[in-house]
Amino acid sequence: MTTAPPEAKEAALEAVATLGRLVTVFAERRKQLAESVGLTDQQWQALEEVQTEHFMPSLFAHKRETSAAAVSKILRQLSDKGLIQASLSSVDGRHRSYSVTDKGRALLAKLREERERAIREVWLKLELSELKTWSSLGERLASGLERLAAEKTKAPELA
Q1: 3-state secondary structure (DSSP) of residue 3
Q2: Does residue 140 surpass a pLDDT of 90?
């Protein structure tokens, strides 16, 4: 195994710290945007999912690693705010179908405008080459971390 020079390790640690900062700032900005329209981040995520064609609460709960009861509570909150409506499924009467109301669509449009403003004011001020480098580097980092996460951790064998 090759050992990286100290400068490379220091640069890698700086990169990890910067990524951590970016993740924190990104999450905080998303929270601010959600709160600006009277939602929590979780409610915003659910509202975005409901607008997709085949929204399923159980799948949403699984993807978010949360309980079905927690998702039901969020859906009830969105319904109480008049942002979504529920009806019995036309395919299977035991299930409910959810759809975004006009009020919900207007709210999502406002959030989309704010995201587009951030893209204009931050991301589009970067050079095209910087954006392409960022995307390429991000893909490589994500793939490497996904590969590590997929590996089974083995306990060292004792002699």
Answers
A1: coil
A2: yes
- Round to whole Å and give the CA distance between 51 and 94: 21
Query: Phi/psi of residue 88, each to 5°?
Result: -65, 140
Out of 3.40.50.1820, 1.10.10.10, 3.40.50.150, 3.40.640.10, the CATH code matching 15-136 is: 1.10.10.10
Query: Half-sphere exposure of residue 104, counting CA atoms within 13 Å on the CB side?
Result: 23
DSSP structural state of residue 90: S
What confidence tens digit (pLDDT) does each residue in 112-129 have? Answer: 999 999 999 999 999 999
Q: How many CB atoms lie within 10 A of CB 55?
A: 18
Mean pLDDT for the chain? 90
Q: What's the token pair of residue 13? A: 């640690």
Helix axes 41-50, 6-36, angle to 10 degrees: 80
